[in-house]
């Protein structure tokens, strides 16, 4: 007996879609029309009046789960896609979570096109009362073998002596405003604030000379191991030709952001960094436009000064915490990071387009200059598959359920829209 309600729901949708495809003469007739969850709900409730066409969608749902690092988790997610007048599709996301280990997490993220696409806003705001293990710097860390373990929504912790559990509070405000200078091109500036305090290095034991990676790094580069902050400004360049930012079928997106963190703005130490990102989407079928090959490449580089340990480039620390399916957030960390991912998206229910699938592979490499570990000396791969359920056909917003597998690690990921 199938007990998972998500599996049952997908099975019902697939059965209905297959029935529609078996209708005599269905290819090309009215029975083969794109249907989202609203359309199926109307069909099940025998509501014949079609809904009004909308250029927005709101997805709200409770979150219930568990992981070794958070314990039992409850919360809620709100994700919306919308259009301002004469502008491209925009998106806003809010997450609120509370755990049985008294952890409290708030995410607010925005990507907004306004004023007839002359203004582009991009923001990432967070408040964490948090816990996260670290393993040292570099893609080869830790030196040893970790046991296989499973996690949920990117969170998890190996019950192994090689992990170094930490607790901390994290306050993050990143907001960038860019202005169109040519078709597809935007140039602007941003403000960035990162504060880590109440840091507790749970395995640190100086009397017995057990020195953790975080404590050793902080001591060497002059950071207070209990709190530190980065405050800076950035120059931002964006090129965007995607046909839909929530679920692109074609086009490309490129972003280059140079961040400068001077001490006179309040940073504990001077540092500068470059964030570079490239996404490309290519349709591979004339018959099904949702059959897409997608590419994602990120380079995050420390180019001047010294960043604090928790502020270094790390897996899962992108705006939407989507890098590294198959690994936990923060699993790999270092001075410089290169990340790549390829995803094949395809329709499962080819008549209605309600159900889709994805296959993906990714890889990350991170250095550690103190240990003479360079980029590409070690590469950690990940791979997996997922299901997409069409939530709103006007905005192409999907409900996402993915399973990812990494090196001695795996996880389930849930959300709305696409990963990139």
UniProtKB/TrEMBL annotation:
Swiss-Prot/TrEMBL keywords: Membrane, Signal
Domain Bacterial surface antigen (D15): 224-420
Pfam families hit by this protein: Omp85
Source organism, top-level taxon: Bacteria
Main location: membrane
Subcellular location: Membrane
Keyword hit for Membrane: yes
Signal peptide (UniProt feature, chain positions): 1-20
Gene Ontology cellular-component terms listed: outer membrane
Name assigned to this protein: Bacterial surface antigen (D15) domain-containing protein
Species lineage: Bacteria, Pseudomonadati, Bacteroidota, Chitinophagia, Chitinophagales
């Amino acid at each position: 007996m199938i007990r998972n309600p998500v599996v049952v729901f997908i099975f019902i949708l697939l059965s209905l879609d297959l029935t529609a495809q078996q209708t005599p003469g269905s290819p090309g007739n009215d029975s083969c029309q794109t249907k989202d969850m609203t359309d199926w709900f109307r069909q099940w409730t025998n509501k014949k009046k079609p809904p009004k066409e909308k250029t927005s969608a709101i997805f709200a749902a409770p979150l219930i789960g568990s992981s070794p690092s958070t314990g039992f988790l409850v919360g809620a997610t709100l994700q919306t896609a919308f259009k301002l007048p004469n502008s491209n599709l925009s998106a806003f996301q809010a997450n609120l979570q509370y755990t049985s280990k008294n952890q409290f997490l708030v995410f607010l993220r925005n990507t907004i096109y306004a004023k007839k696409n002359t203004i582009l806003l991009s923001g990432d705001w967070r408040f964490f009362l948090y816990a996260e293990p670290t393993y040292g710097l570099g893609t080869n860390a830790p030196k040893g073998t970790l046991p296989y373990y499973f996690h949920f929504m990117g969170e998890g912790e190996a019950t192994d002596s090689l992990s170094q559990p930490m607790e901390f509070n994290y306050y993050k405000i990143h907001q960038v405003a860019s202005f169109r200078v040519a078709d597809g091109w935007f140039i602007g500036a941003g403000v960035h604030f990162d504060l880590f305090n109440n840091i507790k290095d749970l395995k640190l034991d100086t009397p017995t000379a057990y020195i953790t990676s975080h404590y050793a790094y902080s001591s060497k580069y002059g950071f207070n191991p209990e709190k530190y902050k980065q405050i800076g400004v950035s120059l931002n360049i964006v090129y965007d030709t995607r046909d839909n930012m929530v679920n692109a079928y074609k086009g490309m997106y490129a972003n280059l952001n140079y961040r400068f963190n001077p001490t006179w703005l309040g940073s504990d130490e001077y540092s500068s960094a470059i964030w570079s990102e490239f996404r490309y989407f290519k349709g591979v079928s004339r018959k099904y436009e949702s059959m897409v090959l997608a590419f994602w490449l990120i380079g995050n580089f420390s180019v001047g000064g010294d960043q604090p340990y928790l502020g270094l480039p790390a897996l899962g620390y992108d705006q939407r915490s989507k890098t590294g399916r198959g690994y936990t957030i923060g699993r790999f960390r270092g001075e410089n990071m290169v990340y790549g991912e390829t995803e094949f998206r395809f329709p499962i229910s080819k008549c209605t387009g309600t159900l889709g699938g994805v296959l993906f592979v990714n890889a990350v490499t991170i250095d550690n200059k103190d240990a003479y570990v360079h980029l590409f000396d070690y590469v950690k791969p990940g791979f997996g598959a997922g299901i997409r359920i069409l939530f709103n056909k006007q905005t192409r917003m999907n409900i996402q359920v993915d399973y990812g597998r990494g090196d001695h690690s795996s996880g389930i990921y849930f959300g709305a829209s696409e990963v990139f």
